[in-house]
Amino acid sequence: MGNEIQKEGLMGLARLMKMAFDGIDLAPIGEALIRRAEAEAKDAEALMDLSVVLQLRQNRHLALDVQRQALATKILYHLPATGKPAVRLLAIMAPGDLMTNTPLEFLVEGSDISLHMLYVGEGLPPAPKLPEHDLVFIAVGESTKSDPLLEELSQVSWSKPVLNRPADILKASREAAPVHLAKVPGLFIPEARRVSRQALLSLRNFPFIARPIDSHAGQGLERMENPEQTAAYLDRMSDSEFYVSPFIDYRSSDGLYRKYRVALIDGRPYAAHMAISANWMIHYANVGMIDSPEKRQEEERFMNNFDADFASRHREAFKGIYEGLGLDYVVLDCAETKEGKLLVFEADTGAVVHAMDQADIFPYKSPQMRKVFAAFRQMLLGAMRAGT
């Protein structure tokens, strides 16, 4: 592995995360990348890969420092297509951690899509001459830190068709999405209010959930049921502002919670995963899907019957989300209310949709992910045709 790393350019997020997902020790890979970066003072690709390795090893602070070193040298990176490219995609990205940008590498890995990634933002070197490309994809995700950049990018005129326009990405914020989607039939998306520490402490509309601004993957997300719990929460958290939403009890009739990840691609929904838990705060990695054949069988049925069942049942809601946000690609974390509405927790362009799961345990996932990746490719081809 070390010799292989020394010879090649960018390994990329998808490949490195798959290694971590499979339990491969990333320490030797990181060491090999360090040796490569030291041997070639301007090997920015080695530094970018090292930054990913450090993040996957939970060393975020050092990872971002290494990323800054890479971007000081080079702001344009390339993952080539497999064979002759059918699509040359230019992604506009922002510096930051693994949640900052749309993880396009998972969607195009091993395909005939060539991916150039251009990092932009304050303090970075000026943009080089752009590579030949067919489409532009704004990969910068919505966040307090990224919003000014998205505002700037919304003023840029591009010579090629643009997917996920900046103004539409801004509509997907936790505050804005409930406003833009308030009148969509069959949809319930809880209001998210931004409050200060003092305002959070004074709230009495229990139960409610709170989370730090710009947090993802459930970091700092908790349910408050009384003032004492809120005070204890603030004692643990140093953040100055939080999002607050009403707690929605979305348990099914059997007492279990079911949370779905759905990719909305060119307006059409595709199943990405389904997680089942006795706990309301669900993350796929920690609900025991690997250990439960019953849960996996239900997820398989969900995927196999998705078009005729879940997608059909919520057709109007998905249509309204697409029209209300205007995003070509967005990932929905959602559930169903007890009244049968589509309950959307988050609309996020930065969520990961992947095919990393073990085929022997999840044999039904690979065919479903191929559908997702094919739909993404078809969307790009359609945008190319429409732009010519």
Describe the structure.
Helices cover 37% and strands 20% of the residues. The protein has 388 residues and is an alpha/beta fold. The mean pLDDT is 94.
Question: Could you give the topology of this structure?
Answer:
Blueprint: H1 2-7, H2 13-21, H3 27-39, H4 44-56, H5 60-73, E1 76-79, E2 87-93, H6 104-108, E3 113-119, E4 135-138, H7 147-153, E5 162-163, H8 166-170, H9 176-180, E6 187-188, E7 193-196, H10 197-202, E8 208-212, E9 222-224, H11 227-236, E10 241-246, E11 257-265, E12 268-277, H12 293-304, H13 310-313, H14 315-325, E13 329-336, E14 342-348, H15 365-387
Parallel strand pairs: 2-3, 2-4, 4-5, 6-14
Antiparallel strand pairs: 1-3, 7-10, 8-9, 8-10, 11-12, 11-13, 13-14
Helix pairs in contact: 2-4, 3-4, 4-5
